[in-house]
Amino acid sequence: MQIKKIPVIMMIIALLCTTALAESPRSGSIDKHLGVQSIDFGSKKQAQTLLDFIESEPSKSEYRLIYVTEIDLVIFGCDFNKGVLFRVHQRKGNHGTQEGWQGYILERLESAAEGGSLNDTPSGKIPGIYETF
């Protein structure tokens, strides 16, 4: 019985194809409706819930947690394609606040879930943008 040797280039191509499939880009968006939450559902709980959501549906590019409190509608999420983490508080009368953090999505979420801040990144504190509308 003769064993055929596979050319090195064929092994490299197979490895690259396998790696490309394993690291395929994220696509699509997904929402998770959390119903009514108390107003103390703050950054720590939001971050941990969003991390769990990302882990449960890892192929998506955009994730949104949506819930209501006694004073507003909250949308907290991220978009991996744009590299942004965002939170919107919509109050009655079409006014509220919106916040956005650029870059380090998972690192910011992990920090907040551990009791830190969404401003915490491997490069130090990088605050987000806060606007009212």
From TrEMBL:
N-terminal signal peptide: 1-22
Taxonomy, superkingdom: Bacteria
Keywords: Signal
Protein name as annotated: TPM domain-containing protein
Native organism taxonomy: Bacteria, candidate division KSB3
